[in-house]
């Protein structure tokens, strides 16, 4: 599955969420939600790495929560990109791969 396919599915879920809860989605809203999710990822990281209280969670549950919060951050990045009309695949390729010395599949 390509990143743009994932972005479209997440966009549809985000729109459904907004409809259910009466939320006006905008780039500002998406950026604020991304910030919120990053805070939750930070908290999960601190817990999973023993730098915060364990919150009564097993190590496996902490890792599961960490992965879930990372998923939220990635998802909200894609929603934010969509709100601004940014193609996430292109943005990543232009930013990250421009100086790649040995790209896969190129000899």
Automatic annotation (TrEMBL):
Gene Ontology MF, one: hydrolase activity
Record's keyword terms, sorted: Hydrolase
Gene3D superfamilies noted in UniProt: MazG-like (1.10.287.1080)
Name of the protein in its database record: NTP pyrophosphatase (Non-canonical NTP hydrolase)
